[in-house]
Design a protein that fits this description.
Number of strands of chain A: 7
CATH class of the largest domain in chain B: Alpha Beta
Oligomer: heterodimer
Largest interface: A-B, 42 and 34 residues
Number of domains of chain B: 2
CATH topology of chain A: Rossmann fold
Number of strands of chain B: 14
Distance between the termini of chain B: 42 Å
Distance between the termini of chain A: 52 Å
CATH topology of the largest domain in chain B: Rossmann fold
Radius of gyration of chain A: 19 Å
Strand order of the largest sheet of chain A: 1-2-3-7-6
CATH architecture of the largest domain in chain B: 3-Layer(aba) Sandwich
Bound molecules: thiamine diphosphate
Radius of gyration of chain B: 20 Å
Largest sheet of chain B: 7 strands, mixed
CATH superfamily of the largest domain in chain B: Thiamin diphosphate (ThDP)-binding fold, Pyr/PP domains
Shape of chain A: globular
Order of helices and strands of chain B: EHEHEHEHHEHEHEEEEHEEHEHEHH
CATH class of chain A: Alpha Beta
Order of helices and strands of chain A: HHEHHHEHEEEHHEHEHHH
Shape of chain B: globular
Structural class of chain A: alpha/beta
Chain lengths: 328, 325
């Protein structure tokens, strides 16, 4: 009982810390984008934090995550530090990809972040590949793909799920269904409004969860990950969620594609707000614990931003390095 | 003539062609109601509706294949990719199917299909939003490849593409989209395989592609102050490639530099260089030179991005080197 409560406290603390860190970094990046400190595109994860946090809570550094163009949250939840992320978007040498990648090419393979991606789709196939390695090596690790509803209409979705299914690969496919791909409603891209039941076509389990409820995401993901590690094969999770910022910074929050009212309604279901009340009703932490944690995170992110802004630019002489393997 | 941006000029060609030819339809992510990610189809949805301005899911292979089938059966699809990088998901369809249908059918099928998208390095777009890849497409029999460098050519080449019965890549450098210039009113077509001599000169020939045409013109202007007379040629299409205009220029200048943002190995510069060596060797007073972007995926950081693309200083240095030979 004692240790159960302890575990629950640890879990809640980690989840809250991770979600609040993602939110704080994203809001910081949105301001930096306005200030011209970010050079390329910047897709934030505000509103969807519960998905990355809920899934990554059950992963270790040996599990391989393959992400999308909206990947800052996945990177942070997988263990990338705010400073390494911000410095990357600032184009600095100390960035997680040493300035080569920017927002859509975040790589930290040493902790199992196998890349965010500027191309929609390939993460699904690559997670199946990580599952294949894990099966061959027998090392108990899992390949995880995060992708949007936009990827569901891509051939990679069909091919990746089928491959993982027929080989019983330890893989987890997490569809972050935020209802829109750029500004195209999912209903325009698919006659079938559901994603999870498609798993049945491949003979694997499919689970729909409230993607703004971090504990629900965590429960579904931890079960699927355990199943994968035990040789039970892949699972498809559909997390229903919403982004409460524009598709990319600089674009419209609403427009022909969605209304102010819809955004406001989803803001009411803010995953961090929801989890905060859950923590308080479960009494795993107090109001003042949470306030202290939030203010610590805010100062950490402020410091990270200052450090990133002061970091050196990459040396232009190195621009052509790493296209090929270098002799050690 | 009316002053227009590159994008407006290309859109004018599309607008006119869609009015004249009811078999033309456009597909792409956001090509419908949104008017295109880069405003390529702005206003057309209101006029022609969702069947002719078709929004797609994110399935490039799927809609390339679909459009290939459509082009074989009496319609004229225009595939709008936003970024050329996204075409790559459909390479199997394009190279095994689209490019070969006319040949496989012994000329009984046509393949009237236009594939358009942004190319080029800039804006810290990083390596999934900055590829050009036109040498790859120019290598394949059956494809036409147009590379407009200014608004007038954007209109004229796009108009020609929209009447071509071969599949045409129409590739728009992102740094040129908002460039303004005079555009002929009414019908304006630029034939494929006809290079433009954009500046006449006598000391050396620079062949430049897309955005590099502008660098070349500026360098030519700068160096004219030192008494150097440079001829600048814009091939405008690389498949077909107008070698005659280039050879004619080399006969006059005796020196040739090819500047291209894309990779050097197996590139357009290699093709031009081989051709001039084969057919104009005796005209050359110096070895042919090439100036290309670095052979590396595009880095994000401005500090690295600038280092891999030929700039005006590098071009001026190359010209001086060529003249000193
Ligand atoms: C192959 C490919 N085609 C098109 C794009 C352009 N694009 C970038 S993000 C995006 C929408 C993605 O929507 P979704 O997968 O639902 O993710 P969300 O942005 O909603 O998180 C599109 C079409 C791309 N990156 N890759």
């Amino acid at each position: 009982m004692q240790s159960d409560a302890g575990e629950r406290f640890e879990l809640h603390r980690w989840l809250y810390r991770t979600m609040f860190t993602i939110r704080t970094v994203e809001e910081r990046l949105a301001r930096s984008f306005m200030a011209g400190l970010i050079h390329g595109a910047c897709h934030t994860y505000v509103g969807e934090e519960a998905v990355a946090a809920g899934v990554c809570a059950s992963l270790s550094e040996d599990d391989a995550v393959f992400s999308t163009h909206r990947g800052h949250g996945h990177a942070l939840a997988k263990g990338v530090s705010p400073v390494a992320l911000i410095a990357e978007l600032y184009g600095r040498e100390t960035g997680v990809s040493h300035g080569r990648g920017g927002s859509m090419h975040l790589f930290a393979p040493e902790i199992g972040l196998m890349g965010t991606s500027g191309i929609v789709g390939p993460c699904i196939l690559q997670a199946a590949g990580a599952g294949y390695s894990a099966k061959l090596l027998g090392n108990g690790s899992v390949g995880v793909a995060f992708f949007g509803d936009g990827a569901v209409g891509n051939g990679a979705f069909h091919e990746g799920l089928n491959l993982a299914a027929i080989y019983d690969l330890p893989a987890l496919f997490v569809c972050e269904n935020n209802l829109y791909a750029t500004e195209v409603p999912f209903s325009h891209a698919s006659r079938n409004p559901e994603v999870a039941p498609r798993a049945e076509n491949y003979g694997i389990p499919g689970v729909t969860v409230d993607g703004n409820d971090v504990l629900a995401v965590h429960e579904a993901a931890s079960r699927a990950i355990r199943r994968a590690r035990d040789g039970g094969g892949p699972t498809l999770i559909e997390a229903r969620t919403y982004r409460t910022r524009p598709h990319a910074e600089g674009m419209g929050l609403t427009g022909v594609y969605r209304t102010e009212e819809e955004v406001a309604a989803w803001r009411e279901k803010d995953p961090i707000k929801m989890f905060r009340s859950r923590i308080l009703s479960d009494e795993t932490m107090t109001e003042s614990d949470l306030d202290r944690m939030e203010s610590d995170i805010k100062s950490e992110v402020d410091e990270a931003e200052q450090e990133a802004a002061a970091a050196p630019w990459p040396d232009r002489g190195t621009a052509a390095r790493h296209a090929y393997r270098e002799a050690p | 003539m009316t002053e227009k941006t590159f994008t407006e000029a290309a859109r004018e060609a599309l607008t006119d062609a869609m009015d004249a030819d009811p078999t033309i339809f456009v597909v792409g992510e956001g090509a419908g109601e949104r008017g295109g990610n880069f405003e390529t189809t702005l206003g057309l949805y209101e006029k022609h509706g969702p069947v002719r301005l078709c929004d797609t899911p994110i399935c490039e292979r799927g809609f390339i294949g679909m459009c290939t089938g459509a082009a074989m059966t009496g319609t004229r699809p225009v595939v709008d990719f936003m970024f050329t990088d996204f075409i790559l998901d459909g390479l199997g369809e394009l190279i095994n199917q689209t490019s070969k249908m006319q040949y496989m059918s012994n000329g009984r099928l046509k393949m009237p299909m236009v594939l358009r998208g942004c190319i080029g390095i800039g804006h810290s777009a990083a390596t999934h939003h900055s590829g050009s890849y036109y040498p790859l497409f120019a290598h394949i029999p059956g494809f036409r490849v147009a590379l407009p460098s200014n608004p007038a050519d954007a209109k004229g080449l796009f108009a020609t593409a929209l009447q071509s019965d071969d599949p045409v890549f129409f590739m728009e450098h992102r740094q040129l989209l908002s460039l303004k210039g005079p555009v002929p009113d009414g019908e304006h077509r630029v034939p494929f395989g006809q290079a433009a001599v954009v500046r006449e000169g006598t000391d050396a020939t620079i062949v430049a592609l897309t955005v590099m045409v502008h660098h070349a013109l500026q360098v030519a202007e700068e160096l004219s102050g030192e008494g150097v007379s440079l001829e600048v040629i814009d091939p405008r299409t690389v498949a077909p490639l107008d070698m005659e205009t280039i050879l004619e220029s080399v006969r006059k200048t005796g020196r040739l530099l090819i500047v291209d943002e894309t990779f050097m190995p197996c590139g357009i510069g290699a093709e031009i260089s081989a051709h001039v060596t084969e057919h104009g060797f005796d005209e050359l007073d110096a070895p042919i030179m090439r100036l290309n972007g670095a052979h590396v995926p595009t880095p994000y950081s401005p500090a690295l991005e600038q280092a891999i693309v030929p700039d005006r200083a590098a071009l001026a240095r190359a010209v001086r080197g060529l003249l000193a030979e």
